[in-house]
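Suppose a colleague, Dr. K., hands you the sequence of a protein chain of 329 amino acids and asks what its three-dimensional shape might be. Before reaching for any lab equipment, you can write down a predicted structure in token form. Begin with the sequence itself:
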Amino acid sequence: MSQAEGAAGAAGSPAEGAAGSLAEGAAGETTGSVAEGPAEGAVRAGAVRNPLWTFGILRSEFATTLRRWRTLALLGVLAAVPVLIGIAVRIETADGSSAGAGGGEGGPAFLSQVTNNGLFLVFAALAATLPVFLPMAVGVIAGDAIAGEANAGTLRYLLVAPAGRTRLLLAKYAATLGFCLVATLVVAASALAVGALLFPVGDVTTISGTTIGFVEGLVRAGLVAVFVAASLTGFAALGLFVSTLTNSGIAAMAATVGLLITVQIVDTIPQLSAVHPYLFPHYWLSFSDLLREPVYWDEVLKNLELQALYAAVFGSAAWARFTTKDITA
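The predicted structure, expressed as tokens, is then:
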């Protein structure tokens, strides 16, 4: 009997070890089991809250977002916009005429300055891409964040890991914000390179009529790029919320972009001017105030406050929806 028991024990040990490993992997160390006891469960809960693990989730989500072919295609399109604008201005001004005959402080006003200073192509490209191209790209990424995982059948497996729904949602939002910054910097870097190749660069004449040095102009360009990225945070939270409402990535992306177009149309209707200050794209082009000397901060701060409000409201809505949602895919 002792030899039989010994053989059974020897045969059972590897099986028990394999089963234990699979159980721990499937559970993801999210909670302590009944057999572990309260002490071991608390230790595992503490391990789950390790900041290094949170950083790992953020890094993984951001890297995954940037590696997708769709993301690379979006960044390629955004990088091509300043190239097209620069070439168009170069061709238009080949006979000595001025570019951008239109007035105002939007794209045409910046275009009229491009031939004198290529640095203004950065501001012109951001003014051209901010109303449509940049938010549409962000809408695709944000709309696909949760719904795309559900549609691909990978959302359940992401939640098996010791991340939890809240951390996963925060990681998705942080990755979307990272894309906002990367996309804006891609536009700015492409415009700066094209502007320096096709046009002269030097001291910058601000909207106020004063002149600042080229280095300070570069700093202003970087500040404008960061501000434009920050202007998309509210819309990114809205897209993430829409992404929690469906299991279809295509539907979420389409709905997010549809909301963008609808809100922008509403923002152009004079009869609805009472609601314009509360629409997320209303202050997007206020980045032109950063090119004044001194900087005019009124609408700049209003825009940041409005984006923070949208991020808080729709971020909370996304959290409430996602943490109570039945995950079936």
